[in-house]
Specification:
Four copies of one chain form a homotetramer. By secondary structure, chain A is α+β, with helices and mostly antiparallel strands. Helices cover 22% and strands 35% of the residues of chain A. The longest helix of chain A has 20 residues, at 54-73. Chain A is globular, with a radius of gyration of 14 Å. Chains in contact: A-B, A-C, A-D, B-C, B-D, C-D. Chains A and B meet through α2 and β3 of A and α2 and β3 of B. Chains A, B, C, D: Residues 49-125 form the Thioesterase domain. Chains A, B, C, D: InterPro entries: HotDog_dom_sf, Thioestr_dom.
Amino acid sequence: MHGAMDAAELSAFLDREFPQVSGDFAIERLTADGIVMRLKVGDRHLRPGGTVSGPNIFALADVAVYLAILARIGPVALAVTTGGGIDFLRKPEAGRDLIGEARILKLGRVLAVGDVLIRSEGREEPVARANMTYSIPPKR
Amino acid sequence: MHGAMDAAELSAFLDREFPQVSGDFAIERLTADGIVMRLKVGDRHLRPGGTVSGPNIFALADVAVYLAILARIGPVALAVTTGGGIDFLRKPEAGRDLIGEARILKLGRVLAVGDVLIRSEGREEPVARANMTYSIPPKR
Amino acid sequence: MHGAMDAAELSAFLDREFPQVSGDFAIERLTADGIVMRLKVGDRHLRPGGTVSGPNIFALADVAVYLAILARIGPVALAVTTGGGIDFLRKPEAGRDLIGEARILKLGRVLAVGDVLIRSEGREEPVARANMTYSIPPKR
Amino acid sequence: MHGAMDAAELSAFLDREFPQVSGDFAIERLTADGIVMRLKVGDRHLRPGGTVSGPNIFALADVAVYLAILARIGPVALAVTTGGGIDFLRKPEAGRDLIGEARILKLGRVLAVGDVLIRSEGREEPVARANMTYSIPPKR
């Protein structure tokens, strides 16, 4: 796969375009078919009992697939999330960041689809799985 | 439907158990089959361009179905979101709160399912639709 | 809503384009925002115990939203299902047809989204809910 | 993973319990975390143009995750599909069977979750991805 943006460029893009959330996330690395991203878990992400809230896990899935798409098509294309689904599989472990592995399954003319497996850092069993779909604007 | 909690009790429950997000939401009213909830849109919910972010819309769907379930089964039961799906249909209008109408479709022994239609306040066309599933713990 | 096809035209379209399944379904009526369709339950749709199989319920949801879209945009546009989600809520009642009420939530330039509530005929509580998304080809 | 049923036992189970569809499917092999299954594509699965219909692809996803669960917990447990989601990514190739690779992501006390990647035989790019959830009855 020939990439349009590397990890540093994606990180700068996130800081510039999404300053309200960019501090929550870090790009671990680009992969052959996607990206590995980290949610830097802080108090604001937690629910009583120390688990990361569902919407924050959804946000990790969303940003991971989004950046995996931009890694291929570049920042000029404004991809918009059109929908997604998520299953919460296990309670995240307290005191650990979440690591999301996203892969692109389709990168079409108008739609891109990816899925994500999310784990507490250092653990094998997944905390959540998600699928996300994005609309790719024309004339990119 | 005989309710286990009314709007004031649900609101107090939200403040007590979810203090980090309770300020974002308000219960508009309970309905025959669910609840109407408001996301009080503020700068922290927005993306560039003034639209509410996807994870915040997901959060509104999640809390709405969750409270609709608690309205029926009461606060003793700890319902946990097991999964959900969402379609983002239109860009929310800038400067308007989001209103989510949730209805319970199933309230079973172990699973509860609801769906939600979300609109910008005062508009007819929906901004998003979502479905959410919750696990109901035993011995409630 | 100004419709592009009425129930008789949709029924003829289904017979012509989908002869392998058209005998399974009947259009009950068009509604303000969608369609009501019947799955004429026969032995081939059943699982042991007399319930309709999940894929057949999915098929009802798919065809209902599909025809609701064609009712608006006409037969020239070849809409393609890009995805969907379904929750199976209750066991269908043996010996009853399934009735699906579909409504269009978005009919955009490239994507259309609808949802469906499916019941055993004459019963109030839903058997399943589903959401379906379709890609609308350009230059329609 | 210690399995409760092997491929031959699963195949016999499918023939006995689901005779109406068992001829459509074949177990390719069990894997470390799931199963590989084949949909033996025939005329009855096709839509005009020679593509496999969406509900038939959904059926492959459903049976694959279902048998992957039974491979672990055995035939005594009656798992019921509670819901799922599917994205149709590419048109299946005419004249080729579909191969679904399912993996179990969670096998809990009351819920099991798996996902599936479906390809036309011999092709790399996926035709569909799906996620399926099953309710596991108590006292298994």
